[in-house]
Amino acid sequence: MSQIFMSTYEHLRITFEGVAIAIIVGIAVGIVISRHKAVAGVVMSVADIIQTIPSLALLAVLMMVFGLGNTPAVVALFMYSFLPIVRNTYVGITGVDKSLTEAGTGMGMTRLQLLFKVKIPIAMPIIFSGIRVAVVTALGVATIGVFIGSGGLGNFIYRGVQMGDVKMILWGAIPLSILAIGFDVLLEQGEKRMVKSRARRI
Amino acid sequence: MRKILKIISVSLILAISLALLAGCGGSQEKKIVIGSKNFTENMVLGEIFAQVIQDKTDLKVEYKENLGGTMVCFEAIKKGDLDIYPEYTGTGLTAHLKMDVINDADRVYDIVQEEFNKQFKIKWLKPLGFNNTYAVAVKEDYAKENNITKVSELVPLAKDLTFGGEHEFFDRQDGYEGMIETYGLNFKSAPAKMDVALKYQAISQGKMDVTDAFATDGQLITYKLTILEDDKNFFPPYYAAPIVRNDTLEKYPELEEVLNSLAGKISDEEMQMMNYKVESEKKAIRDVARDFLTEKGLLSK
């Protein structure tokens, strides 16, 4: 039993580390490329390509660079979480109504003020839904970290499959499903609230 | 809005500090890392190494079990992420050194010993005793009825039998083609290729009659199968032994003696029995390893 808690904790830790880095880097990159359309295309394509690399292959390559354990798993999760966050940030910011930014400029806002007081708040629900997709995907992808010796619930699932032991598979799969559904619902609530608060402010 | 931003930033900070904390955890004390591949036998062996080392030295052992296969373990030991893992001589020869199959067990051991030292700075310690090679298996009842114990005795019967095995067996140098050629086997029909997990079920349900097996497979016991003797010596040797990084041995020379205390201690049958206990009786690997070591008097505490 305690093993399940340890694995769940480990699973969450890997997932959050990967997603946290992706949130920081993804939002920053998303903001930068919203100003430079040409760069945006390149960044998006690269992120798209990363997304299509089979996770096992990506892990195998990362293992050669980062060694065994949690680090390569975190890096892989970062790479997979990056696309939804960067794309939603980009779409959210470039999608802000022209009339609003013009109004801001008209009020004498600087570029930074415009970004932080107008664009980001308005784009926030969209960015947030990117984060939601990233978290739920990452929870799933983290299971394959078992191949390179990172902890997490994948250990139970993989070992269960090897031994044809359904009970063991469920020990991993049930907590994982609870986590994925739980976070999805939780983040959805957050998203809804943001949309509401935005509606109120606008 | 403010609130949500606050919540996000707080959780971010938390996550990052957690990450940093985790990074600081491992100080460089006297510690070695053992690895194992993704199947029961290898995991049992890794556990045995870990317990013996913990028992006889004051080294701290970290055991990374069930890594994603031969290549993951091998890359990791070359890189220094692993210090020790259980490897098979035949695998060392064909998969890592990319050499052709050789049937003489001693020669294979000498070659991997020398080449690993030269190319990878890795040392092969003494073999544990058993040989987990490919083998030909039939149902126990069938072997008794027809009174056969050797693969060559299968030749006159083969025209009424079907052969089936996992995909890999048909792609390997030491697999199907070589086997039927060496023995002159002519089976009733083209062989059935299937997933490794299904093959024992298929033979026990009578869907096929002959299959390839690993000599130390615990499922041979579960499904009441018998191994036929490879009397023409076709299958190359896969003797298991601990392999260790040279620089680990320089740092902790006591490891060599400790691990060599296992040399020749595990027979085919004993390994098979341990695999069976884990796979069919669902015993914990740790307990199976400890019971074995205690029984053999290999633990001092």
TrEMBL record, chain A:
Topology class, membrane: Multi-pass membrane protein
PROSITE patterns the record matches: ABC_TM1
Any Pfam family hit: BPD_transp_1
The keyword Cytoplasm belongs to this UniProt entry's keyword annotation: no
Gene3D superfamilies (UniProt xref): MetI-like
One Gene Ontology cellular component: plasma membrane
Transmembrane domains' residue ranges: 12-33, 53-80, 122-148, 168-187
InterPro entries: ABC_transp_perm/SBD (IPR051204), MetI-like (IPR000515), MetI-like_sf (IPR035906)
ABC transmembrane type-1 domain sequence ranges: 8-187
Record CDD domains: TM_PBP2
Record keywords, A-Z: Membrane, Transmembrane, Transmembrane helix, Transport
Subcellular location: Cell membrane; Membrane
GO biological process terms held by the UniProt record: glycine betaine transport; transmembrane transport
Family according to the record: Belongs to the binding-protein-dependent transport system permease family.
Entry protein name: Osmoprotectant transport system permease protein
From TrEMBL, chain B:
One CC-aspect GO term: ATP-binding cassette (ABC) transporter complex
Signal sequence coordinates: 1-22
Keyword Lipid metabolism: no
Domain ABC-type glycine betaine transport system substrate-binding: 30-295
Record GO terms (molecular function): transmembrane transporter activity
Keyword Secreted carried by entry: no
Pfam families in the cross-refs: OpuAC
Record keywords: Signal
Protein name, per record: Osmoprotectant transport system substrate-binding protein
